[in-house]
Amino acid sequence: MLKTALSQQQFIMYYQGQTNSKGEILSAEALLRWVHPDQGMVSPAEFIPIAENSYLIVNIGNWVLMEVCQQIKKWQQTGLYLNHVAVNISPRQFRQEDFVQQVTKAINNAGIEAKYLMLELTEGIVIHDIKDTIAKMLQIKALGISISIDDFGTGYSSLAYLKQLPLSQLKIDQSFIRDINVDTSDEIIVEAIIALAHKLDLDVIAEGVETIDQLTFLENKGCVKYQGYYFCKPVPAEKIGTHYLS
Fold first, then answer.
1. Domain count, the chain
2. Fewer CB near the last or first residue (10 Å), C or N of the chain?
3. For residues 14 and 240, what is the distance between their CA atoms, to the nearest angstrom?
4. Which residue has the higher pLDDT, 22 or 53?
C-alpha cells in the first residue's frame, strides 16, 4: 500500500510553524501526511514505522526532501522567506551511502540556498556508528545546512559525543514540555537542556508547547523558540504565513 501511495502521489506535506513568544513564524517543520483514497488521512504513527522497516522509507524520504525544497522555492517566489524548514530524517535514510548526494540534489534542483534547509536527526541516529555520523554531518554542514537533534533528552546519547557533533540546534522533546508546572523533574530537565544548549552555543527550541504556562516557563528559562498548538497547528503549505495563528 505504501508503494502505491508513493507512486500515486497520495502523500502530501503539512507544515507547522516555529515561532517566537509573539507567535511570529520564524521557521517551520515539514510533516508527512498520507491521504488514502478510501481511509482518508492516515496517521504517521501508523505508516512511518512500517515504512521504516522497509526500504520504502528511503524512497519516501528522498521524495520529502525534493518536495520540501521545491516548496521553499515556491514560498520565496511569493516573498515568504522563512529562516529554514526542518525535515525529519529516518535512520535508514541517513545510513545510505548517497544520502548527502540526495540532499545536494534536492537543493540544486529547487534552486535554493542550503541555509534554508534544516535536517532533524534523532539521538538514536547519532550514536549509531559515530564515525560515519560525524563524517556525514560535517559534509552536510559544509553545504551550509543546519542540523538539529530532535526529541533531545529521550535517547541515550553520550554528552562526550555531543560536543563533537557539528550541531546547530537542540529540540526539547514534548514529553518534557507536557508536564511543566506539574512535574518538578521535567522542569529541571527542561531547564538543564536549555542551559546546556546555551553553554554549547546551540540554538534551542521546545516542541509541544500548548499552554501559556508552558510558554512563560520556557521564556523565563531562556528558551525563545517554540513549536506547538499554542501558536500553530500543522497546515498545508498554502496556509503558512507570517501572520498565521490558530
1. 1
2. C
3. 9
4. 22
Confidence band, pLDDT 50/70/90 cuts, at residue 107: very high
pLDDT(111) > 70:
yes
Residue 157 identity (one-letter amino acid): S
**What CATH number is given to the structural domain containing 178?**
3.20.20.450
Angle at 148 between CA 99 and CA 222, to 5 degrees: 175
State how beta strands 169-172 and 203-207 pair.
parallel
Nearest of 245, 237, 220 to residue 14 by alpha carbon: 237
Give the 3-state secondary structure of residue 97: coil
Does 246 reside within a domain? no
Predicted local confidence at residue 243, as pLDDT: 47
Whether the CB-CB separation of 133 and 125 falls below 8 Å is answered with: yes
**130 CB contacts (<8 Å, ≥6 apart)?**
161, 164
